[in-house]
Design a protein that fits this description.
By secondary structure, the protein is α+β, with helices and mostly antiparallel strands. Helices cover about 15% and strands about 30% of the residues. It has one helix and eleven strands. It has one helix spanning about 1-25; strands spanning about 65, 70, 75-80, 90-95, 105, 110, 115-120, 130-135, 150-155, 155-160, 165-170. The chain has a four-stranded antiparallel sheet, with no helix packed on it. It has a four-stranded antiparallel sheet with strand order 5-6-7-8, with no helix packed on it.
Length: about 170
């Protein structure tokens, strides 16, 4: 019986810490990125308000900022769309697919592209402010279709790269 008790307590303790960790991480999203659920009722049969077609697949998640939706596409563009009607406010062409979810801080959009560059753009105009060259993104197999998404805090932008590094850059 002491053998059973020992493992039972270990199991309960492990479950307690796992549960705390799941609540803390919010699935890698923060309230600043407006990635949350609303208490509003969703209709049983929702109607499409608008639809926007890119020239490639879309793996990144949309980020809401003011009247914009910022989203990347495998057509190598980062798009800023009007969230009311889906019209293009601006788009920025990179040298590779944009599979990473962008981050917005202090009116700057940060994102990684498959061309191995990390970009900073003006959120209102899409004008490039600066880029940072990593040692390059690498594809390992056909299932390797995600890129690291940026996180920004206290003037530092953090992201991971397919080159095996985690970077912290002055934003």
């Amino acid at each position: 019986m002491p053998y059973f008790k020992k493992y039972f307590y270990c199991f309960v303790l492990a479950f307690f810490f796992l549960e705390m960790n799941l609540y803390a991480q919010q699935l890698a999203r923060t309230a600043d990125r407006h990635n949350y659920t609303s208490g509003a009722l969703i209709q049983e049969r929702p109607q499409v308000k608008w639809r926007f077609q890119t020239e490639g697949q879309v793996y990144s998640s949309p980020v809401l900022y003011a009247d914009k939706i910022i989203i990347g596409s495998c057509d190598s563009n980062l798009y800023a769309l009007n969230k009311a009607d889906g019209s293009v406010l601006w788009k920025y062409k990179t040298g590779g697919e944009v599979r990473a979810t962008a981050a917005v801080d202090q009116q700057v959009v940060y994102f990684l592209s498959a061309d191995g560059h990390f970009y900073a753009l003006d959120v209102h105009t899409g004008k490039q402010l600066w880029t940072f060259k990593t040692e390059g993104e690498k594809t390992y197999d056909i299932w390797d279709y995600f890129q690291s998404s940026a996180a920004v805090e206290s003037g530092i932008v953090y992201f991971g790269s397919g080159d095996g590094h985690i970077y912290a850059l002055d934003a």
